[in-house]
Model the fold of this input.
Amino acid sequence: MEILKGMTVVNAMKETMKSEIAQMEQAPLLAIVRVGERPDDCAYERGAMKRMSGLGIRTRSCVFDADISNEAFQEAFLAINGDPEVDGILLLRPLPSQIDEKAITELIDPKKDVDGISPVNMAKLFMGEPDGFAPCTPEAVVEMLKFAGVELAGKHAVIVGRSLVVGKPLAMLLMKENCTVTVCHSRTKNLQDVCRSGEILVAAIGKAEMLDGSFAAPGAVVLDVGINVNQEGKLCGDVAFDTLDASVALATPVPGGVGTVTTSVLAKHVIRAAKQRREHAQRDK
Ligand code: NAP
Done:
């Protein structure tokens, strides 16, 4: 079984991105918007900032108190959204309950929405329009499959999970690649049989090591999106990695798998957002 580590894909993506930035008059700027001090958010922010600075992308941390009012946050968010310096916005979610998160996803400028949370970008993804932004995690899955040279056209891909963040957008991205897609969820019957029918199996469930080796068919490519903590307090995926047998063609580990590639896809989106915005500004002059 081949183990595909996220860093291998990240390194392969790096040079193209660096040379794209080198050709720009000014480096792109990503605003990272965080409300409160949730450890998950802080860890993701640190990782994203490190990846961006390694590529030469500028970042700006926009941090607000956890008890900020909905009105005050909307006003501050609109200021970031309207700042001509800002090329992309990453909003760390979930937001505290007093903030109307849906309203923010509707306010964000789709051209700066580099994590694909706005209804406009969601619609573009569903309509197969190339100029929108898909959520970074499902795109990271496709990026890994392509890097590994997995032939996608005509393949049966089974996705476990139907969230708006991972499962549903991934179904759209894989269909665009001409996969035949089955999406499973908590009410799916005979989950093991359905999973075993997949030539590509993607787990995006959020349940520690829920799928063991018996869910993967011989020759399957297994991508694990889950990020969980197991009973020993260690980070683990939705797949019990150690139970996958040698007949599996390829699998991604957790940690160090899909999550690692997610921030590089974010960087790719920030560069594209900056280029598109600057081209438009040039045209409008
Ligand atoms: P989510 O919104 O909680 O969705 C989980 C999905 O799994 C739901 O569709 C749910 O079905 C399904 N599910 C739950 N229990 C199931 C079961 N027993 N059998 C079959 N399906 C089941 O989670 P999410 O936001 O998509 O995230 C999924 C995982 O990915 C989490 O571990 C999260 O931490 C991780 N994640 C990683 C990244 C990254 O960068 N690597 C990014 C985002 C998320 P129902 O719809 O029927 O409830």
